[in-house]
Write a structure and sequence with these properties.
Strand content: under 5%
Order of helices and strands: HHHHHHHH
Helix content: over 70%
Largest sheet: none
Structural class: mainly alpha
Distance between the termini: 76 Å
Radius of gyration: 21 Å
Amino acid sequence: MIPIRALVQLLATMGAFEEAIEQALTVNDVQLAKQMANQVQTMLTTTTDHHHQQQHSNQDLAKRLWLKIAKHVIKNIYDTKSDNGDQQQREPGNFDISMATNILNECTLLKIEDILPYFPEYLTIDHFKSAICESLENYNQHIESLRDDMKLATESAQQIREEIA
């Protein structure tokens, strides 16, 4: 039997990243899965592709890998709570989403809206309040950045028009 770390490394070396992550998660080694996903994400961002379509598919791969990890973490939190048999544990107020939302901090490709569908239905918006607020703040910063870029582009276009005229 091949040790799981060796198997995961071998699969990753062969380019079978999804299988590598699945093998790590099969033995509930979330840290190993995260390590592999980080390696893939780093590799994909440092590789300079001249093809936009290839970059997009590489980003999709990294996002899929992180989503697998997030699903696994959320499922394990839910299964741990529901397998316990203690009805008190299954109450929405006792559901801790911090492990799942920590993944959002570790992976910039995932957003709260990517992982929301995998949480149990009985959770309320209160459980996600801080993550949603953070997501909205990030969107606001991105919008402000785009607004600044548009302003610079408009000013540059105006300057070029004046030089031509």
